[in-house]
Design a protein that fits this description.
Keywords: Chromatin regulator, DNA recombination, Metal-binding, Nucleus, Zinc, Zinc-finger. This is V(D)J recombination-activating protein 2. The strands form 7 sheets. An 8-stranded mixed β-sheet has the order 2-3-4-5-1-29-28-27, with no helix packed on it. Strands 11, 12, 13, 14, 15 and 16 form a 6-stranded mixed β-sheet that branches. A 5-stranded mixed β-sheet has the order 6-10-9-8-7, with no helix packed on it. Among the domains are: about 130 residues, no CATH class; about 80 residues, no CATH class. Strand 17 and strand 18 form a beta hairpin. About 35% of the residues are buried. With about 500 residues, it is mainly beta. About 5% of the residues lie in helices and about 35% in strands.
Length: about 500
């Protein structure tokens, strides 16, 4: 177990309590950040990178058919493993926006494509539910259960505003625990049903939910009614029978008094580490616990916590999320210290074994990355046209640090150098160029020549392409050659026009 301090590079203000960290296609994504960070990331979703003790963010694009995804704090987030041909994905329900609006929507987040420069594009779709639909809420959980060859999603807990008929001017923004109902919905048909169980007689929020096969365990949580964090532990058993499901609940005696904790999985088995959280409004939970789910049920083991720094020990609040198996991003406020310009201190806590860390460091040490454009202006979606590059062709490419978010870039229109080599007869000076196509905003449009040693990028202007043909090529998936390597094949150009 290690704890490493992190230096945020122009991104500390984007991580706020209630944000979520997702792991999609091997990349850590930040969702639910503070406000809308100017033009460099209109989607509000960022890729998070840790390197040499620094934390950087890069803009994540959405596909053209994606819906609007508001910046949600404390939503219920559930990962869906690939199954039946469906890709790895995430379900996001509810949440609270920075404007204190509480959502009742359900979104499905999947990877759409991997472009050049390892740039990730994701797709967001809103899913409609029918039947007994859960209302707007935040601080709740969602879990996936499998029974009798079927799969369903379990939603429980959370809090919301008081019912409309009970709200007054003084209590307009007062929140209450949602009724202790369990919602079960089928993602394939979008049918939702509500279930009331006698064991669940009190609402709870900011609890933990862990699922294994047909059981979900609810751990801890905060109750507004009693203003307490009782050491609760429930086991919900779900049988997905034909017709209507059968739900049963059992109260267990080995719970943990905790709320708003961070949980990370440590390996392929159902073993988790619980870190952070609160025992009371004024007391953080400084201990760490391992949670193991097996055929016998649930087990808790004590884990040695990190050596907390004075900043962590004396802070009143902390937050964060899992950044992968056995790894956690932890943030504590600077408590308004004038000597500290950032809003939070950040740490990366790793519960990996020593040999696993060495293997990971060895892999990272072999990676090839270019830093020539660390200070370049962030790209917008339409600033550059990418041309059908396969994932296996990206091994020697940079990882796109030019997309890192920078708060000072809003008015920065400086023109910087470019990181490519063009064809032998290139007439474009990347440092003094003027836009040639209407699609160019900050950098020349490029195509990727697949021939030659490793391939290389070529200015579209040097290829003497019309803008119409340039746009059509950008929407294809074929490989093309520059003039030095035979030029674009006429048959390919004709086929493009025939299909269009």
């Amino acid at each position: 177990m290690t704890m490493q301090p992190l230096t945020p590079v122009n991104c500390a203000g984007l991580l706020q309590p209630g944000c979520s960290l997702l792991q999609l296609d091997g990349e850590v994504l930040l969702f639910g950040q503070k406000g809308w960070p100017k033009r460099s990331c209109p989607t509000g979703v960022f890729g998070v990178r840790f390197k040499h003790g620094e934390m950087k963010l890069r803009a994540i694009s959405f596909s053209n058919d994606s819906c609007y995804l508001p910046p949600l704090r404390c939503p219920a987030v559930c990962r869906l493993d690939p199954y039946d041909g469906f890709p790895e994905s995430y379900l996001i329900h509810g949440g609270r926006t920075p404007n204190n609006e509480i959502s009742s929507s359900l979104y499905l987040l999947t990877m759409d494509s991997r472009g050049c420069n390892r740039k990730l594009t994701i797709c967001c779709k809103e899913k409609e539910l029918l039947g007994e639909v859960p209302g707007a809420r935040y601080g709740h959980t969602m879990s996936m259960v499998q029974s009798r060859g079927k799969t369903a999603c379990v939603l429980f807990g959370g809090r919301s505003y008081m019912p409309a008929g009970e709200r007054t001017t003084e209590s307009w923004n007062s929140v209450v625990d949602c009724p202790p109902q369990v919602f079960l919905f089928d993602l394939e048909f979008g049918c939702s049903s509500a279930h009331t169980l006698p064991e669940l007689n009190d609402g709870q929020s900011f609890h933990l939910a862990l699922a294994r096969e047909d059981c979900v365990y609810f751990i801890g949580g905060h109750s507004l009614t009693s203003d307490s964090r009782p050491p609760r532990l429930f086991r919900l058993h779900v049988e997905l029978l034909q017709g209507s499901p059968l739900l049963s609940c059992e109260i267990l005696e080995t719970g943990i008094s905790i709320s708003s904790a961070i949980i990370t999985r440590t390996g392929p088995a159902h073993r988790y580490i619980v870190l952070g959280g609160y025992k009371s409004d004024s007391q953080k939970r400084m201990e760490c616990s391992a949670v193991i789910l097996d055929e016998k049920g649930i087990q808790f083991e004590t884990v040695e916590p990190p050596k907390w720094t004075p900043d962590i020990s004396h802070s009143r609040t902390w937050f964060g999320g899992s950044t992968g198996e056995g790894s956690v991003l932890l943030a504590v406020p600077t408590e308004g210290r004038p000597s500290q310009p950032e809003m939070h201190y950040f740490y990366q806590v790793s519960f990996q074994k020593e040999e696993e860390r060495k293997d990971e460091e060895g892999i990272l040490g072999c990676s090839q990355e270019s830093t020539d454009y660390d200070n370049s202006t962030p790209l917008e979606d339409s600033e550059e046209l990418y041309f059908g590059r396969e994932p296996h062709e990206l091994e020697d490419s940079s990882d796109g640090e030019g997309d890192a978010y920078n708060e000072d870039d809003e008015e920065d229109e400086s023109q910087t150098g470019y990181w490519i080599k063009c064809c032998l007869g290139c007439q474009v000076n990347p440092n003094t160029w003027e836009p040639y196509y209407s699609t160019e905003l900050h950098r020349p449009a490029m195509i990727f020549c697949s021939r030659g040693e490793g391939g290389h990028w070529v200015h579209a202007q040097c290829m003497e392409l019309t803008e119409t043909l340039l746009v059509r090529l950008s929407q294809g998936s074929k490989k093309y050659f520059c003039l030095d390597h035979g030029g674009l094949r006429l048959s390919d150009i004709l086929s493009l026009f025939i299909h269009w």
